[in-house]
Design goal:
Elements lengths: L2 E19 L2 E15 L2 E7 L12 H16 L8 H6 L7 H18 L4 H4 L6 E3 L2 E3 L5 H14 L4 E4 L6 H10 L5 E4 L9 H5 L9 E2 L7 H8 L6 E3 L6 H9 L5 E4 L1 H4 L2 H13 L4 E3 L6 H10 L23 E2 L9 E3 L9 E2 L1 H7 E7 L1
Helix pairs in contact: 1-3, 9-11
This protein binds 2-succinylbenzoate (OSB) and magnesium ion.
2-succinylbenzoate binds next to loops.
């Protein structure tokens, strides 16, 4: 397989509702779509970096330069044995997994299309339906949050994740638990606390959460191990886990009981499978995280979620929760049971709405 062309496009999409985490509020997404062409077919990928380097060190503008100047030139025009090679060819780049992943997942999608296979089957997926939860950002009031949760539960979502930060944590979780005593509930702090907050976080044990996600620093596995020793609630690591080896180390140190896998954060499908396999071998369940993706990233997340150790509901939900109009057709729909049926079409399983993509593209560059 040889790539003859790679096109980068930056698109802008306003969110239906703002999304607020401990590191800030997002109202409009700027994402990079990567289109690769080779052997007479095309594959598409999405860069999941944020608009600012606040979730991790990556952001949209940096990802564009990494792709254009470092990742794409390594892969373009070279004879590739398979999609796995993309990750190896760009491994000389320190960090920037999300930028590298945008290219890597596009090549996987191309390879699946060339094999006339659905992407989920091509990566070794095992299930035809995935379980969905929702991630609900910090709201302007607790009342608003409770209303939102009620609406998502009525739509069928199987698990509710709320975002927490100092000043929006124990009291909020208590209010949610009082109103919804029986739901699958969890909280994501996006690195807003320090180990010295352990006694404060310990209060969350009273609310039997499924897990608390990434409470401490984005790069600190050791402090998470120290915190986990003090909590009954399992810790789920997100930001900390950038590859399979780090997953092994975190599990060995007992820093977490669960791991959230995001394609972008770990650099694409090849590494996501390594994280998945490392967790499975050690009895650690995983679920698929989200980064407010457009339909392209969403479709890739659906494929990833079909691997057999994705046993917990993920943050992969319907297009309409994010976008008035998505860039894929049909948009991602969730059943009243809170599941997404996996498409059997070749590639990522949806059509691209190229007219709409053209309308919302603010820059485009083709490399040959
Ligand atoms: O930590 O999981 C996170 C969104 C942006 C950055 C980080 C995170 C999130 C989410 C949203 O929780 C998940 C989604 O609905 O896409
Ligand atoms: Mg998270």
């Amino acid at each position: 397989m040889k790539l003859s062309r790679v096109t980068l496009r930056e698109i802008r999409m306003p969110l239906v509702h703002f999304f607020e985490t401990s590191f800030g509020r997002t109202t409009e997404r700027r994402m990079i779509l990567v289109e690769v062409e080779g052997e007479g077919s095309t594959g598409w990928g999405e860069v999941t970096a944020g608009e600012n380097p606040f979730y991790n060190e990556e952001w949209t503008d940096a990802a564009w330069l990494i792709l254009r100047d470092y990742a794409v030139p390594r892969v373009l025009g070279r004879e590739l044995r398979n999609a796995c090679e993309v990750s190896d060819l760009t491994a000389h780049i320190r960090g920037h997994q999300m930028a590298r992943a945008g290219l890597e997942v596009a090549v996987w999608e191309l390879e699946a299309r060339l094999a006339n296979q659905p992407l989920w089957r091509h990566i070794g997926g095992a299930r035809t339906e995935i379980a969905c939860g929702v991630s609900i950002g910090i709201q302007n009031s607790v009342e608003q949050l409770l209303e939102k949760i009620a609406r998502e539960l009525a739509s069928g979502y199987q698990r509710i994740k709320i975002k927490i930060k100092p000043g929006w944590d124990v009291d909020v979780v208590r209010a949610v638990r009082e109103r919804f005593p029986n739901i699958k509930l969890m909280a994501d702090a996006n690195s807003a606390y320090r180990l010295s907050d352990a006694p404060h976080l310990k209060q969350l044990d009273a609310f039997y959460l499924m897990m608390i996600e990434q409470p401490l620093a984005h790069d600190d596995i050791i402090d998470h191990a120290k915190l986990q020793a003090q909590l009954d609630t399992p810790i789920c690591l997100d930001e900390c886990i950038r590859n399979g080896h780090m997953a092994e180390q975190a599990i060995e140190m007992r820093a977490c009981g669960i791991i959230n896998i995001k394609l972008g954060r770990v650099g694409g499908f090849a590494e996501a499978r390594r994280v998945h396999d490392a967790c499975r071998e050690r009895g650690i369940p995983v679920w698929c995280g989200g980064m407010l993706e457009s339909g392209v990233g969403r479709a890739h997340n659906i494929a990833l979620s079909t691997l057999d150790n994705f046993v917990l509901p993920g943050d992969v939900s319907a297009s309409r929760r994010y976008w008035q109009r998505d860039i894929i057709l049909p948009p991602v729909e969730v059943s009243p049971q809170g599941t997404i049926a996996v498409s059997d079409k070749p590639g990522f399983g949806y059509d691209l709405d190229l007219d709409y993509i053209r309308q919302i593209t603010v820059r485009e560059e083709t490399l040959r």
